[in-house]
Amino acid sequence: MLGIIAAVLFFVSFLINAADLGTNDVFTSTNVMLLGLTALALHLSGVGAGWSPRRR
């Protein structure tokens, strides 16, 4: 799930950068890209993977 969120954030970042939209300081393409990288890092580290360890 976090991988999909990262992909969407990267796409939004690309659109902001490609269209040269004038956004406020919070939603710049760099900030959206960094949010995508954070979501991707969490995805690769296994957060939200939905697995649980076996119990004996």
Unreliable stretches, pLDDT < 50, 5 or more residues?
none
Mean pLDDT across the residues is 77
Q: What share of residues is helical?
A: 55-70%
From the spread of the alpha carbons, the general shape counts as elongated
Strand content: under 5%
- The count of helical stretches stands at 2
Helix and strand string, N-terminal first? HH
Rounded to the nearest angstrom, the distance between the terminal CA atoms is 29 Å
Instruction: Please identify the structural class as seen in this structure.
Output: mainly alpha
Characterize the largest beta sheet: strand count, sense, and whether it forms a barrel.
Answer: none
Radius of gyration: 15 Å
**What's the β-strand tally?**
0
Q: Supply the number of structural domains.
A: 1
Description of the molecule:
The protein is mainly alpha-helical. The chain has one domain (2-45). It contains two helices and no strands. The protein has helices spanning 2-19, 29-45. Helix 1 packs antiparallel against helix 2. The longest helix is centred in the N-terminal third of the chain and has 18 residues, at 2-19. The model has no long low-confidence stretch (mean pLDDT 77).
